[in-house]
Amino acid sequence: MPPCGSPVFVSNRKRGWSARLGNLLWCRGGRGKKGEFRLFGEVMGDDSKTIDWNKTRKFLNQITTDLGAAMLGALTYIGDRLGIFRALSSGEWLTSEELSRRTGLSERYLREWLGAMAAAGYVLYEPKERAYMMPAEHAMVLANEDSPFFMGGFIQMVVPNVTMAPRVADAFRTGKGVSQSEYPPETFHAMERSSAGMYRHQLIRKWLPTMPHVVEALGAGATAADVGCGSGRAAITLAKAFPNTRVYGYDVHPVSIERARAGAEAAGVSDRVTFEVRDGTRLPEARFDFVSTFDVVHDSADPAALLRSIRRSLKPNGTYLMLEMNVSPNVEENINAKGRMMYSVSTLYCMTVSLAEGGAGIGAMMGEPKARELTTEAGFGQFRRLPIDDLFSALYEIRP
Ligand SMILES: C[S@@+](CC[C@H](N)C(=O)[O-])C[C@H]1O[C@@H](n2cnc3c(N)ncnc32)[C@H](O)[C@@H]1O
């Protein structure tokens, strides 16, 4: 038996690995009690045989990957913000010097950044020439803002959301939330970028065609409202596609409404879209042929009141389209990459902004059963999940 405090290695000869675990002490007498097992001088348990070191090592690998991903999030943010991903998207092999000349950025910083990107597999590395290349498939996700797979909005969201972690940690102690107005404006710009592609590529071509009566009504000229419109991308897309339809966008967040108005002006549809700071729980009655909420219900302070208000705001033949996360409300069904991302986003923003208003704090993992329950309680008679296959979004057609 080695003396207390000596370094301890764990190995698995069959699999050919060994690792130093630290100054593990399996004391029999001496300073430790019999059967006591210590790591770095701390008592870890009283029976080392209960620890499966293979699992510890595997988990150590996982957490190294996860911590690397967390740190890499900051570097992807830098790559997006400084246009480095765009500069790499030509598909050419570039050295850090060439990339520096192209971007006007410091070569030393770029070389370190490229090392991280190569280690993560975002770019390929050719050691002979010390050159890096972004495959065209990766450029679709990282650099091409018009691509349906573009993730730049989510990448941009990492830093403002993570910056809020100390405020969210305070909220863990109090059980209260962090109000939307405390988040930096960049959070909402990132949100706009993360959903803009969805509307550009899917709203008109993929989602609405699953409800032909809605397409017909909007084409003929209808009154529509997007509630919780954020910076108005969905409402503007609707107005552009259906020039006979009058569109209203409502949101409680004044900063987003300002951006929405500017967006409508830039798109040349400000005569057909009106954006207003208004709580969706107080909509005009019997006014709309079509109402939508995109990623709003789970964030809202009072989802029950919101849905009752939407129900009242619809004309008798109207349709409500609800988009929510394509997730299960059950933890055991979310033990995957999407669950990891969405529970994290929900803790850092969705659930937390709702709790800040003394709200329901449903969180992003609301799932279909809760959507059904809320709409039934609000007095809707029909609920149909639309046949749309999407990794992140579930869409529901809801009618009086
Ligand atoms: C996750 S964001 C989605 C924004 C937008 N629909 C999009 O897809 O980009 C949720 C939005 O709902 C808004 N919201 C939440 N509760 C609301 C309510 N009761 N009335 C109006 N807007 C609300 C928030 O201010 C926020 O802009």
Give a summary of the structure in a few sentences.
With 400 residues, this protein is of the alpha/beta class. The protein contains 14 helices and 15 strands.
Write the topology of this structure.
Layout: E1 8-12, E2 17-22, E3 25-27, E4 36-39, E5 42-45, H1 53-81, H2 84-88, E6 94-95, H3 96-103, H4 107-120, E7 124-126, E8 131-133, H5 136-142, H6 152-163, H7 165-174, H8 185-207, H9 212-220, E9 223-227, H10 233-241, E10 246-251, H11 254-267, E11 273-277, E12 288-294, H12 303-313, E13 314-325, H13 337-356, H14 367-377, E14 382-385, E15 393-399
Parallel strand pairs: 9-10, 9-12, 10-11, 12-13
Antiparallel strand pairs: 1-2, 3-4, 4-5, 6-8, 7-8, 13-15, 14-15
Helix pairs in contact: 1-4, 1-6, 3-4, 6-8, 8-10
The structure holds S-adenosylmethionine.
The site of S-adenosylmethionine has 22 residues, from helix 8 and strand 10.
Alpha carbon gap, first and last residue: 76 Å
Kindly name the structural category: alpha/beta
User: What CATH architecture of the largest domain do you see?
Assistant: 3-Layer(aba) Sandwich
Number of strands: 15
Largest sheet: 7 strands, mixed
**What is the H-and-E element order?**
EEEEEHHEHHEEHHHHHEHEHEEHEHHEE
* Small molecules bound: S-adenosylmethionine
> Helix tally?
14
What is the beta-strand fraction? 15-25%
**Percent helix range:** 40-55%
Oligomer: single chain
Q: What name does CATH use for the topology of the largest domain?
A: Rossmann fold
Q: Looking at this structure, what is the CATH superfamily of the largest domain?
A: Vaccinia Virus protein VP39
Broad CATH class of the largest domain: Alpha Beta
The radius of gyration is 26 Å
Strand arrangement within the widest β-sheet reads: 11-10-9-12-13-15-14
How many domains make up the coordinates?
Answer: 3
